[in-house]
Design a protein that fits this description.
This protein is an alpha/beta fold. It has 2 domains: 6-54, RecR Domain 1 (Helicase, Ruva Protein, domain 3, Orthogonal Bundle), CATH 1.10.8; 60-170, 3-Layer(aba) Sandwich (Dna Topoisomerase Vi A Subunit, Chain: A, domain 2), CATH 3.40.1360.10. The chain is 45% helix and 11% strand. It is built from 8 helices and 6 strands. It has a 4-stranded parallel β-sheet with strand order 4-3-5-6. Helix 7 links the parallel strand 5 (139-142) and strand 6. Helix 1 crosses helix 2. The protein is globular and about 60 Å long.
Length: 199
C-alpha cells in the first residue's frame, strides 16, 4: 500500500466501508476519484445527493422507490394475495429479472442474527405480519438467502405466519447450471435432493 495523506486515507477508509469493497479496492477507487476529471466527480456527487433526496422506502413492501407506492405494489395485474419475502431490495430486482413471479414483495432489510444483535424488532417482520392479516394473504414465499441467518429467519417467519392461516413456502435451492456435484457443499446438495421433482 502506498503512503497516503490523511485526507486520502480518510477517503479510502470511507470507501472500504461499502459492502464488498476491501482495502485494495477502496484504494483503487480513491485514486480513481482523485484522478478523474472534475466534472465527473461533480456528476458523481450530484447523483449521490439526488438519490439520497429522491429515493425512499415503499410504505407497503419497503423496497427502494421514488414513487409511493412502488410500481410493483401499484401494479393491479400482479397477484395481491401472494407475497415473496426477501432480505434486501436488490433481491427484488434479481427475482424480477427472472419474470417468473407475478405477486408482490416484502423486504425485511436483513436477516435474524443473534451474533450481530439483529432481532425481529430490527427487521420489517411486524409489518409483514400485519400485511398477512390485513390483506388476507394466501401464500407467503420465503426467499431469504441460503445462509444460517437466512435459514433462521425463514424458520422464524414460517412459525409466525402458519399461526395466521397463510400457506408458507420456501424457494428451492439446488445445483447451479454448470456446477460439479463433487465440489458442491452438503447444504446445497441436501436442498437439491429435498427440492427434487418428477421428470
Amino acid at each position: 500500500m502506498i503512503t497516503m495523506s490523511s485526507s486520502l486515507e480518510q477517503l479510502r477508509q470511507r470507501l472500504a466501508q461499502f459492502p464488498g469493497v476491501g482495502p485494495k479496492m477502496a484504494e483503487r477507487l480513491a485514486l480513481y476519484i482523485l484522478r478523474a476529471p472534475e466534472h465527473e466527480v461533480q456528476q458523481l456527487l450530484r447523483a449521490i445527493e439526488e438519490a439520497r433526496r429522491q429515493v425512499i422506502y415503499c410504505p407497503i413492501c419497503f423496497t427502494l422507490t421514488e414513487d409511493t407506492p412502488c410500481w410493483i405494489c401499484a401494479d393491479e395485474d400482479r397477484d395481491p394475495l401472494t407475497i415473496c419475502v426477501v432480505e434486501q431490495p436488490a433481491d427484488v430486482d434479481a427475482i424480477e429479472k427472472t419474470k417468473a413471479f407475478r405477486g408482490r414483495y416484502h423486504v425485511l432489510h436483513g436477516a435474524l442474527s443473534a451474533l450481530d444483535g439483529i432481532g425481529p424488532q430490527e427487521l420489517k417482520i411486524a409489518e409483514l405480519l400485519k400485511r398477512v392479516v390485513g390483506d388476507r394473504i394466501k401464500e407467503v414465499i420465503i426467499s431469504t438467502d441460503p445462509t444460517l441467518a437466512g435459514e433462521t429467519t425463514a424458520t422464524y417467519l414460517a412459525e409466525k405466519i402458519h399461526t395466521l392461516g397463510a400457506r408458507v413456502t420456501r424457494i428451492g435451492y439446488g445445483l447451479p447450471m454448470g456446477g460439479d456435484i463433487e465440489y458442491t457443499d452438503e447444504l446445497t446438495l441436501t436442498r437439491a435432493l429435498e427440492g427434487r421433482r418428477e421428470i
